[in-house]
Design goal:
With about 170 residues, the protein is mainly alpha-helical. The chain is built from 9 helices and no strands.
Length: about 170
């Protein structure tokens, strides 16, 4: 039988393993490496402080993603200057020359199409396609129903395909 110290040590070790995913999701939300690291640190601080509220056997990654998303949303509400700061970063983005290689052009086109999706569509694509969360886990992170996750994911994929003009596999069949 494990005592609470073993469970806590195991949980903290599992949290450490989730840091790369947390950083990637925070970076997606903020588009700022330093700010995203601050969010992850605050997320982990809150998770450890509230470790007793996590139920062993449930999905730790989804629990941490919920905390991270809440920290980010609370920051946005509390600090209006953060919005101006991010807008300034986008406005002052450094100029770059267009890549000469076809793959870079395609990736650039996909990135642009992704960034033009709605925030809801980008979030659901990030969580399911990149982070590999199940529909139920993404629904928990986003605080929406599984049906809404599936619907948003379908619409996001359709919008992304349309934006980059990629025909569906079924359109290739004669």
């Amino acid at each position: 039988m494990h005592d609470n110290r073993d469970v806590t040590a195991d949980t903290i070790a599992a949290m450490k393993a989730e840091i790369p995913r947390l950083r990637r999701f925070a970076r997606y939300m903020t588009r700022d490496a330093d700010y995203s690291d601050d969010l992850v640190q605050e997320c982990l601080t809150r998770a450890i402080a509230n470790i007793g509220s996590w139920q062993p056997g449930t999905n730790l990654r989804a629990w941490l993603f919920v905390i991270l998303k809440n920290v980010f949303r609370n920051d946005k509400r509390r600090a209006q200057h953060d919005i101006a700061y991010r807008n300034g970063l986008e406005r002052d983005a450094p100029l770059f020359s267009a890549p000469q290689q076809h793959n870079h052009l395609v990736l650039s086109e996909v990135q642009s199409a992704f960034l033009n999706l709605t925030e809801d569509h980008r979030e659901v694509l990030m969580l399911i396609a990149l982070e590999g969360l199940r529909y139920e886990e993404a629904a928990s992170v986003l605080n929406i129903s599984v049906g809404t996750v599936k619907s948003r994911l379908s619409r996001a994929r359709t919008a992304l395909r349309a934006a980059i003009d990629v025909p569906l596999a079924s359109e290739h069949q004669d």
